[in-house]
Amino acid sequence: MKKRKIIHYSVFGNNEKGHGGQKRTNQIVNLLKKDYEVHELQLNLLLPRNVLKLVFYFFYGIKELFQLKIRMYPTIIGLIKIGHYSYMCRTKVKLNNVAFVIVEEFRNFGAILNLYAKSKEIPVIGVAHNIDSFVPEFRSNFTNLSELKYFKEELYLLKQCSFVITISREENWLLSLNKITAIYLPFIPSKSVINELNEIKFKRESIQNKIKPLLLGTVKNIPTKIGMTKLIRNMEENRVSCDVVGFGSESLLADFKDLLYVDIHGGVSSEELNFYLLHCTSMLVYQPPTTGVLTRVIECLMCGIPVYGNDSSLRSYHYLDGTFNLASYKNGEERASRIDLSVYYSEISDSENKIMLLIKELL
């Protein structure tokens, strides 16, 4: 039987070994392609520099406010973006014979794609990688609102979806409180990455003298940068040696000079990362209160690496074996007890089944 066509839109890209957003997109695509023919939507969404085109998109945006029944009060730039994105939807997005649309972004084009598909009576499934209005320094790209006013706008956009997949328990609870049908989908890497993590776990069991703790994260993520900066300062002050790796982490060198105990290695290859995972004593994570969830926590636990973090960085993971409060960390300590993730795997299976059942009910 031929698989039904769906349209999938993500700003992150599909990469099983990329940053957290790319891994999440890979997880969603892998789940859906079992039963559906997934068409990745890729468009050039840069605003033109031509003044006449910008004026055209401004007036097109005004028309689309009424056409798509958009309940927002956009700025001039916001109107231009609405016009541009809705014009792209009407000229580039073909919804013929599409079973449903899945949208992983609600700050820019994804927000308008959501409203456009709904206007054509095509079901939309949202994937909330973050509650963007709670991310430090984020403002609405349409209205320039921030904080709670932006949160109301974000809730309005998410409510247009048939249901929303969340990546953390806390956000699932928050959206459910606001009468949004939400399903928490715990993170799981691809099968090939799981095989690599299992191999690392097996090799770690034979390594007696592990070296030092690891700080791992994507520094382009603002809360992660704040947390890594705080941890590096703390490591230096307490004379604790550690390694720092991750996308963009080399930029942290600009904030620190003459580091004595912390080695910042920057972005590394998969092979180099595996070396650090093999030889670290533990992973340390710290974040200020924020949204989303850290994929690297579960990956480290799957490697048999204990994870020390503050409450915010361990959100959604507090109940798992191998997670410890950062305040309890002692230099050189390693808690390499067997980490049992069977309950976590069971939750993933239950969530996947619920998602696929909800999709069938939509169709």
- Sheet of most strands: 6 strands, parallel
How many helical elements?
11
The H/E string reads EHEHHEHEHEHEHEHEEHEHEEH
Strand order of the biggest β-sheet: 2-1-3-4-5-6
- What is the structural class? alpha/beta
Poorly predicted parts: none
Rg on CA atoms, Å: 22 Å
Beta-strand portion reads 5-15%
End-to-end distance: 16 Å
Which word captures the global form?
globular
Provide the residue-averaged pLDDT.
92
Helical percent range? Answer: 40-55%
Number of strands: 12
Q: Which labels suit this protein?
A:
single chain; globular; 11 helices; 3-stranded parallel β-sheet; 6-stranded parallel β-sheet; 363 residues; 14% strand; alpha/beta
Tell me what you see in this structure.
The chain is an alpha/beta fold and 363 residues long. 41% of the residues lie in helices and 14% in strands. It has helices at 20-32, 51-67, 76-92, 109-119, 147-158, 169-177, 191-204, 222-237, 270-279, 295-302, 342-362, and strands at 4-9, 36-40, 98-103, 124-128, 163-166, 182-184, 214-216, 242-245, 262-266, 283-285, 307-309, 323-325. It has a six-stranded parallel β-sheet with strand order 2-1-3-4-5-6, sandwiched between helices. α10 (295-302) links the parallel β10 (283-285) and β11 (307-309). α2 (51-67) crosses α3, α3 (76-92) packs across α4 and α7 (191-204) packs parallel to α9 (270-279). The model has no long low-confidence stretch (mean pLDDT 92).
